[in-house]
Amino acid sequence: MAASGYAVNRKQWNRLAERFNSSVCNIVEGERGTVIPSLVREALRRRPKPVVVDLGCGVGTFIERFGEKFGETVGVDFAERMLVGARRRCRKVPRVRWVCASVEQAPARVGQIADLSVCLNVLTSPNAALRRKQWKSLAAITVLGGCTLVVLPAIESAQLVARVEEQLRRKTASLAGADAEGAVFRGKARQKHYTREELREAAERAGFRVLRISRVYYPWADEGLHTRSAVTRGRYPWDWALLGVRRTRATGPK
Ligand SMILES: C[S@@+](CC[C@H](N)C(=O)[O-])C[C@H]1O[C@@H](n2cnc3c(N)ncnc32)[C@H](O)[C@@H]1O
User: How far apart are CA 164 and CA 160, in angstroms?
Assistant: First the structure.
């Protein structure tokens, strides 16, 4: 099916900065707050006091929560207003600097310095060529043997949400507009959603060895469903969180 709808661009992210400040999609809050810390602990065991680069850091929720544990932190985002929010939120976090740049520009702007690269819900462009370039950037800023922590929307979760919406006889939203490449409508914007296997393949292609892929559950309210119905009981939507290690030499297909 021909894909209409748009990818969220820099101007729109700047507009969204205020909503992010009031904690929309806070990846380290609530239920999400148990999986991410355990992956961060695992990364810290491998590389204590790491240099951390958070690509697409938004208003700095990850850096605010974990920055103190890091040797040095660099927050990168292409939306200046996100960085204004991040500076404010993280004013007490030591050893942080902020860089206004795109994911694509990051290797040239920050170099290959990350003992831990972080990229939370950013690699979601429906444009496959751009996504490949961004995965390469993520690898290029990560030192050999360093870790990466990536969170991305799960297509399996979008399918669950669509089924629940249908069962609740709500107007179905997301999957009706999904294309063969897995780009799914979130409101009017299209975002690439990943199957577990596809995420593993994208990370391996970029040069990472995958250590773990976990579900990061989030509340139904984030999908606009305010229900206690039996249909949703015990089930939650989720993102995929991946922890990987930058391979020290190429072992697989590029
Ligand atoms: C969904 S938000 C996630 C923010 C943060 N990682 C978090 O989890 O709270 C996506 C962020 O990535 C930024 N972003 C999107 N595409 C980008 C790109 N190509 N280069 C740099 N930043 C980008 C947006 O400005 C926004 O701050």
Answer: 6
Which of 32, 78, 138 to probe ligand 1 with, by most ligand atoms within 8 A of CB? 78
Closest CA to 189 of 2, 1, 51, 7: 7
Distance 42 CA to ligand 1 centre (A): 24
DSSP H or E stretch at residue 241: strand 238-246
* Residue 59, helix vs strand vs coil: coil
Query: Tens digit of pLDDT for each residue in 151-209?
Result: 999 999 999 988 888 887 655 455 545 677 888 888 778 899 999 999 999 999 999 99
pTM of this prediction?
0.89
Residues present in the chain in total: 254
- Please name each of the domains of the chain with its CATH number: 10-246 (3.40.50.150)
Nearest CA to ligand 1 atom 21: 102
Half-sphere exposure of residue 21: CA atoms within 13 angstroms, side-chain side: 15
